[in-house]
Design goal:
Blueprint: H1 10-13, H2 23-28, H3 33-38, H4 41-55, H5 58-75, E1 79-82, E2 88-92
Antiparallel strand pairs: 1-2
Length: about 100
């Protein structure tokens, strides 16, 4: 049986920012200062909204996150499998 979702545990609820950008970030990507000065807060929010919608697609960001975490944890010595009933079985632990 799968463990209950740990809703009360602060460690599970802590968020880690993945993306943050500013006009300075865009400058570092090569956008000219004159162009950056022309951008309004609404323009920046539009860019943010586009990025948010792109990252929200399950086939994009969630898949990348899942694979990245799996590769990281396997590299740390962890591995697990799921039964047909979706139970988790740890098959390898770090030594």
């Amino acid at each position: 049986m799968r463990e209950p979702y740990p809703t009360a545990d602060e460690a599970f609820n802590k968020s880690y920012a993945v993306l943050e950008f500013s006009r300075l970030s865009l400058y570092c990507f090569g956008v000219p200062i004159e162009v950056l000065r022309s951008l309004t807060d609404e323009d920046m929010q539009t860019i943010c909204d586009f990025l948010t919608s792109w990252y929200a697609k399950p086939s994009d960001f969630s898949e990348v996150l899942e694979r990245t975490v799996s590769i990281f944890l396997i590299g740390r010595g962890w591995d697990w499998e799921y039964s047909e009933e979706h139970e988790v079985f740890i098959t390898r632990r770090p030594q």
